[in-house]
Structures are given as C-alpha cells and as structure tokens.
C-alpha cells in the first residue's frame, strides 16, 4: 500500500505517430487498435499527408470520441516527412510509429514501455514481432521470428529484425539526435525502406531491445507500398549502400554479408514481380557466394506455380478464388510467442560472426556492451 501523501507513479507519455495518405479504408480500425491499448498515457498524432479521400474526416470523427487523437494536415511529402512532422509535434519521451493500415495488439505499448523503462538511456528503442494480415484483418502468415538485442548494427544489416514501420517504440530524443527519417528516398522515387534506414542509423549509435511476442498485425495487399516489388528491391539496395558508406566501418565479412542479403532480397522481389531480366544481376552475384539459395528460390517459385495449376485443375478457378474464413487479428485472445525455426549450421556460424563484429564495433564506439551483456544474462 502507498503511504498517505505519497505521489503515485505516473506513466510516461507515449506519442503515437500515424502517417496517413488516402487511408480511409483502414484508418478507423487502426485508430481503434491504438485507443484500445492497455497503456493509457497516449497522445495519437495522425499526420494526414495530403490525402484526397475521407481520411481527415474519419480522423476528426474519431477524435470526437477520444480526446487523445489529434490531426495534423500537410501537403503530400511522403511517409518519412509525415513521421518527422509527428516526431516534432510529439510531447512524450517515447514515440511509437503506427502505419495507417496496420493494427496493434492491446498490450503492445504497455509491454514495450515496461521493457525500455528498466534499461538505461543507451537502449534507445524496442521492437516486437508481427503477424501478416489481409484486407479483412484476417491472419494469413507469420512474420520472421529472428531476434537479437543489444548493439545489433552489423546483424541488423543482414537480418533486418524490426521488419516494418509499425513495430518500433523509440526514445524521442534518440530519434531527434539521428535526424529522424530520411525523405530523400521519396525524392529519388525509391520510397519504401525509410523505416529500415532509420533503424540502421539508430542501431549504429544505440542498443535496441525486443519483446518476443507477435503484437502487430502488418497488412499486406495489392496496392500498398510493400507490394511494389521492384521499387522495394531498389530501395533496400540503396539503404544498404548508404549505410555501408556512412555507418560504422564494418569488417569485410560483415559488409559482404549485408550486400549478399540485399542481393537475396532483390532477387526474391524481382521474382515476385515476374521481372526475370532484373533478377539476373542479383542471381549472378548470389551464385558466387550461395548457389543453394538461388536453386531453392527457383524450385519454390516453380513449385508454387505448379501447385496452383494443379488446384485449378482439381477444384476449378471459382472455388480456388472463393474466400475461406480465417482468424482475425482483433480476435486473438493473447499475443503469441514465436516458434523459432531450426537454423542451419551455416546460419548459426554467420550469426555468431556478425555478433563478433557488433561486439568489436560497440567497443570502438564506447557502447556499454558489458552492461548490455549483464542485462541480457538476467532475461
């Protein structure tokens, strides 16, 4: 019990930044997932990035019922500039980003704040894992379950742990110190990976924590930014190039691993787009270092095509296209913890060598890895 006259502990304010462009099909559901958080000390800043649909009207209607929501309207400048506008307007010491078509589990912010509050300021951010959801909020797949904590710059270049723009909760001061999000990608016509660029600049200077639970519904559908496979391939390649040029100096092994991972991502994206002419260059680069990856990707793509043809023959196009009922993200009774897929010996060795590179970098840049290791041993 608290003694008489004691000051109750106040929750630190979390500023939720929601960049929105023509988001009327989803924005109401997204805002409900934000306002339904068990963590109540929130301000929800929706930055309408020059929408031409009903986005602003729907946000204003939601704000009538929840005073924590406020709307900022700007000309269309892209998601990076919209997020920066939200960071600048934020009042809280923590900022969480929520894309206007994604959903949060009710416990997301509470668990992230709890994780970060027990860590020193050198730990600047915390991420969660995600489910994939469709247009109807139904679950249709699991995001990656790779996890790493502490100083993870070299490993993040290869494994990209955070995964998307709606996962991260960050100390506002750290976001300001690294200059926020880089809007030059949109100006160059390759927007789509600004969140990864932000994460890498953050990881180059700070330690990062995780909550090992799937607390995010990440929406993928034809027409959203991540479905433009060719642009996403170009964007990630450019993020990798810039990070290697401007970030901490990596060992040749860690730099080569990052470049190889970018080639693999590009090849996969070009294959999804059916652009085999563009796929040729990364495929040639990968064949020198990891020919098994190319063979497996071709076999997986061919198997998927053959499976669809067989299903069409057996049950017909109409039945194949008929929707089937799936669990909805909002109906999850609790968040799910990941089931880690077994790693090959080669993957384990790569992760271990990249962890060594991170340890060397953190020592060179005076990141308190001893403190990080001690904390990790207690988790």
Summarize this structure as a short list of keywords or feature phrases.
379 residues, single chain, alpha/beta, Spore Coat Polysaccharide Biosynthesis Protein SpsA, Chain A, 9 strands
Describe the overall structure.
- By secondary structure, the protein is an alpha/beta fold.
- The protein folds into two domains: 14-101, Spore Coat Polysaccharide Biosynthesis Protein SpsA, Chain A (Alpha-Beta Complex); 104-379, no CATH class.
- It contains 15 helices and nine strands.
- The chain has helices spanning 27-35, 55-65, 79-89, 108-117, 153-159, 172-177, 184-187, 194-203, 229-246, 252-273, 276-289, 291-315, 317-321, 345-364, 369-378; strands at residues 14-20, 42-49, 69-74, 94-97, 103-104, 123-133, 139-142, 169-171, 207-219.
- Strands 1, 2, 3, 4, 5, 6, 7, 8 and 9 form a nine-stranded mixed beta sheet that branches.
- The longest helix is centred in the last third of the chain and has 25 residues, at 291-315.
- It is globular, with a radius of gyration of 21 Å.
- Residues 1-7 and 369-379 have low confidence and may be disordered.
For the termini, the CA-CA separation is: 28 Å
Low-confidence runs of at least 5 consecutive residues: 1-7, 369-379
Helix content: 40-55%
The rounded Rg comes to 21 Å
The count of strands amounts to 9
| Biggest sheet character | 9 strands, mixed
Mean model confidence by pLDDT = 88
What form results from the Cα inertia axes? Answer: globular
Overall structural class, as computed from helix and strand content, comes to: alpha/beta
How many structural domains can be distinguished in the coordinates? 2
Fraction in beta strands: 15-25%
If helices are DSSP runs of H or I spanning 4 or more residues, what is the number of helices? 15
| String of helices and strands | EHEHEHEEHEEHEHHHEHHHHHHH
């Amino acid at each position: 019990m608290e003694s008489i006259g004691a000051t109750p502990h106040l929750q630190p304010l979390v500023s939720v930044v929601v960049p929105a462009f023509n988001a009327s099909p989803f924005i109401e559901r997204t805002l409900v997932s934000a306002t339904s958080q068990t963590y109540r000390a929130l301000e929800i800043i929706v930055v309408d990035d020059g929408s031409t649909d009903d986005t602003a009207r729907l946000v204003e209607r939601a704000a009538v019922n929840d005073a924590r929501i406020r709307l900022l309207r700007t000309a269309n400048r892209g998601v990076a500039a919209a997020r920066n506008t939200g960071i600048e307007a934020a009042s809280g010491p923590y900022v969480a980003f929520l894309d206007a078509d994604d959903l949060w589990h009710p416990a997301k912010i509470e668990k992230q704040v709890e994780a970060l509050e027990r860590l020193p300021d050198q730990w600047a951010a915390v991420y969660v894992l995600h489910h994939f959801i469709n247009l109807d909020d139904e679950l249709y797949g699991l995001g990656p379950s790779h996890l790493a904590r502490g100083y993870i710059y070299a490993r993040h270049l290869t494994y990209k742990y955070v995964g998307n723009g709606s996962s991260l909760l960050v100390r506002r001061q750290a976001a300001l110190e690294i200059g926020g999000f880089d809007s030059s990608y949109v100006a160059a016509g390759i927007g789509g990976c600004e969140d990864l660029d932000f994460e890498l600049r953050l990881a180059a200077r700070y330690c990062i924590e995780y909550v090992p639970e799937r607390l995010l519904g990440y929406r993928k559908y034809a027409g959203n930014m991540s479905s433009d496979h060719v642009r996403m391939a170009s964007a990630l390649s450019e993020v990798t190039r810039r990070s290697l040029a401007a970030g901490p100096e990596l060992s040749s092994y860690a730099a080569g691993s990052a470049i190889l991972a970018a080639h693999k991502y590009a090849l996969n994206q070009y294959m999804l787009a059916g652009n085999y002419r563009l796929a040729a260059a990364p495929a040639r680069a990968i064949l020198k270092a990891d020919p098994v990856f190319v063979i497996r990707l071709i076999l997986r793509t061919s198997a998927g095509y053959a499976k669809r043809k067989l299903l069409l023959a057996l049950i017909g196009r109409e039945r194949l296209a008929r929707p089937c009922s799936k669990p909805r993200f909002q109906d999850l009774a609790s968040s799910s913890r990941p089931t880690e897929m077994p790693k090959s010996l080669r993957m384990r060795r790569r992760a271990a060598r990249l962890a060594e590179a991170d340890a060397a970098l953190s020592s060179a840049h005076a990141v308190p890895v001893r403190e990080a290791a001690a904390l990790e041993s207690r988790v």
